[in-house]
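Homework help board

Subject: predicted structure for assignment chain

Our instructor gave us this sequence and asked us to write out the predicted structure in token form, then describe one feature. I got the tokens but I'm not sure how to describe them. Can anyone check?
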Amino acid sequence: MLVHAVGALRASRYVGHVVVAAPADRLAEVAALLGSDGTAVPGGCTRQESVAAALAVLPPEVDVVLVHDAARPLVPVEVVDAVVAAVLAGADAVVPVLPIADTLKRVDEAGRVVATVSRAGLCAVQTPQGFRRSVLARAHAAADPSEPATDDASLVERIGVEVATVPGAAAALKITTPFDLEIAEAVLRSRMPEP
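My token output:
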């Protein structure tokens, strides 16, 4: 999954350097995968710690930062480019989104439906998320470790910075279950050239 996720980023005309936060016992393997235009750093116990470790080793000239999950290895390069282009056009923070298609229900502790939640204005957020480096660094510096965020855009929101959106892609699914992996394999097969 990491090979595909890094490949999706490197396919972008905007991405010049990739930093991967990885388990300490896999650093040499990840560094070999990245080559000379990438860096592997030990990841932390939380997402926030891992992103902060990656931010700390970015070359000083990097102004736009993408935070991407290896669990989304099939993101199309068009989504990557749209996120970066939006930051370059003036946004401080950008996330790719997909409208929610399912009906949403609020359920109580006993498992009973207590309300149907309107989908209006609700979107599922994907990665890569893009940021001005200074904004992301400020958000991480202000982060409260006792209130972990599920994504970096949440940290940026907490410091009062507006987060813009660009259209996401269904192919950028997050692989968290064996079924997700089956879907990803089907997507990869569909992208292979005909024999």
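Reply (TA_rk): Your tokens look well-formed. For the description, you could write something like this. The domain at 2-191 is CATH 3.90.550.10 (Spore Coat Polysaccharide Biosynthesis Protein SpsA; Chain A). That's the kind of observation they're looking for.
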